[in-house]
Design goal:
4 strands, 4-stranded parallel β-sheet, 197 residues, alpha/beta
Length: 197
């Protein structure tokens, strides 16, 4: 698969996983948010250079990634036990009106099929209140197509959550980082735009 990096990261940045000539680590902002983010990343996403959860963890001081689905490694459900935790997923049910905002948001990281399976296979996720986000605009740039109208990359979803919970100015630099990543990935693929994706 074209977005999978060599096991030894030959020619790649160990931080952002992009080719070293296109490394964007120096452009990653450091954002301190009131909200904490827990990303549950499907194990098949971990070595993809297009995985944007990696970017979110580089940018956000309050972001932690845990792995899901690795053979022989059961998922530790205790990571979901913190109080005031909501889920960022389109199928999750929003809390009653007037509920205080969450202290922590869980984000499922994977392609649409992987994320839906995580949601279905971990009933603890379905017990969490959902944080509703509007769908991305149709003209939003994509490195991967989603079959779901609410589908977006992990860093986009986190930026959207920050915008809802803490205001658009706080999220703006994360949106800009996502755009920069798209530019760099397309450059690595020898393309200057994503019209033929």
């Amino acid at each position: 698969m074209r977005s999978r990096t060599p096991a030894d990261l030959a020619g790649r940045c160990p931080g952002c996983y992009l080719p070293t000539a296109l490394c964007l680590c120096a452009d990653v902002p450091r954002l301190e948010t009131r909200t904490r983010f827990l990303v549950i990343r499907h194990n098949k996403e971990a070595n993809k250079s297009t995985n944007t959860a990696r970017l979110a963890a580089l940018a956000l001081t309050n972001c932690h990634i845990v792995s899901y689905g690795a053979p022989g490694q059961p998922f530790d459900l205790s990571v979901l036990a913190a109080p005031d935790t909501w889920l960022l997923f389109p199928d999750a049910q929003p809390p009653p009106p007037g509920t205080p905002p969450p202290e922590r948001v869980v984000v499922l990281d994977g392609n649409w099929t992987q994320a839906r399976r995580m949601y279905q296979r971990l009933p603890e996720l379905r017990r969490l209140p959902g944080l509703p986000l509007p769908p991305p605009p149709p003209e939003a740039r994509r490195l991967r197509r989603s079959p779901h109208p609410y589908g977006m990359s992990t860093v986009e979803a986190i930026a959207g959550a920050i915008s809802v919970l803490e205001g658009e100015p706080v999220a703006r630099s994360l949106h800009a980082l996502h755009e920069l990543m798209i530019d760099r990935v397309l450059a690595a693929r020898g393309r200057i735009n994503d019209d033929d994706d």
